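Example record

One chain of 219 residues, shown exactly as stored in the release files.
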Amino acid sequence: TVMARTNPDIKGAGGISAFVVDRNTSGISLGKKDKKMGQQGTYTCDVIFENCRVPASALIGGVEGIGFKTAMKVLDKGRLHISAVSVGAAERMLDDALRYAVERKQFGQPIANFQLIQAMLADSKAEIYAAKCMVLDAARRRDQGENISTEASCSKMFATEMCGRVADRCVQIHGGAGYISEYSIERFYRDVRLFRLYEGTTQIQQIIIARNMIKEVSS
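Predicted structure tokens for this chain:
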């Protein structure tokens, strides 16, 4: 899906249109593969367009100037998706950390017996539960046809930030082992950092939530 300005006289979103462009279209080439902090299993790179001609049939919706609106339509669903992914990843990380804490022994006993380890486990469990409830509630509302712009942003902001906190705690529970790639938490710690960036950063979600609140009161 390509967003392109089809009307240079309109500087705002109204001059942008959306197209479906075939990968094999003449004039398209790919830049070098990005070397990222995490998410090594997903290949990303620049897509380069040079004299790339697409037919009018590639225009999504068949009308120019609605590209931005088209993109906005899928954002709520995308934000719920990232929220759900964050919950799933956090559940996996906590499960691994819990098993490690039960099996790892120091001073003749499992580290799971230490109260500060228990505190990190409990905080993570509670936050995951809260995020999961938010995702399910927002998803149900969307299925019922409600406008969930605020709820989707709340879920995305909370769930992704939660996932980052859980990842950090789980590394801490593993101790020095958590910094070694032999354990899955080392990879998870890097991979989940991206959740707070795409589909709109945490700061963008804060702005959306606040603007929607103000709009609701002002209307």
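Notes: The mean pLDDT is 94.
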